[in-house]
Design brief:
This is HEAT repeat domain-containing protein. Helix 6 packs parallel to helix 8. The protein has a domain of 121 residues. The chain is elongated and about 60 Å long. The protein is built from nine helices and no strands. It is an all-alpha fold.
Length: 174
Amino acid sequence: MKRYLAVILLGFAVVLGFATRHRGGKAGVAGAFETLRPSEDAKLPASRQQVASARVSSRATAGSSAEERADVMARIDEAVKSYEPAAVKAIAPYLTSTDRDLRSAAREGLIQLGEPDGIAVLRLAATRMSDPAETNACREAADFLELPSWSETDEARETVANLLANPEPTPPPP
């Protein structure tokens, strides 16, 4: 019995060491904290890099001008439209902005982007929110991203099977 326990613990240590080494040295929740910090490696491809800067602007606070605020909103929008996994890191810092509208835009942007990496970021942001409504909104957004896509459901499989079995197009109902 002790031998089995030792083998299990050794296996766990190996897996943990492997996961830590291949995640940039940060495993689990500790690595997720890095996601909310702006970083230089959180850049989108060069074609979008100038428009969707990953750096958080210190001017993007509640007291910023309408022009600066619109610029940040445009960066979030461009990051969403890139449909790149790196866009999660570009959007994540705005979840903790002092501007409520920017936080909302970042949350909605992560939903539209639909990347699974956004789940941990939203859950982490929910722990840092002081407003219960925003906390719930972040949790609901993370829950939504965890849902399977329609193409992975039984309904989708049945629909595709019916389309393949019945190649004749059927007229739409009146």
